Amino acid sequence: MKVAHGPHDPGNIHRVMATLLIVHHTPSPALHALFDAVMSGATDDRIEGVEVVARPALSASAVDVLGAHGYVLGTPANLGYMSGALKHFFDQIYYPCLEATQRRPYGLYIHGNEDTTGAVRAIETITTGLQWERAQEPVAVLGQPSREHLDACWELGAAIAAGLTL
After folding, report:
1. Whole-model pTM?
2. Does residue 7 belong to any structural domain of this protein?
3. Given its phi and psi angles, is residue 57 left (phi above 0), alpha (psi -120 to 50 degrees) or beta?
4. 10 Å Cβ neighbour count for 15?
5. Of 99, 111, 35, 89, which is closest to residue 66 (Cα–Cα)?
6. 163 torsion bin: left (phi>0), alpha (psi -120 to 50), beta (else)
């Protein structure tokens, strides 16, 4: 968490909240359940000092990315690749954010019916190019999400959010 000094603060100190940006493409009930679990973890009352902002991948912008201190990405795996919406997001933010967001933490949750390997690899290639740091192992879900998958997504959201307070 950052500390800023200002003339109107008691003791001239106020806290500036960290921002967690959740960029997601949520077209299915399974992805909606995973997204809800990530949001629940990220917004847990025990985590203080973090503002959580969720944006659909098609409307998230470079301004959103530049204003955030960490990221959680959520997507379906479509034919062995990330969704077109998440790819569009990366296409829009890559060069405007390339230098300014290096070393920021990110996490990933992904849902597929048969395989998520190619989609995870593609996202890791792009985030490596951006020099973002993976803070948690990706949560990759095949088929209907189980209680363990939902718990892993809750933990993903909570861990990335809590990590921003350190």
Report:
1. 0.90
2. no
3. alpha
4. 12
5. 99
6. alpha
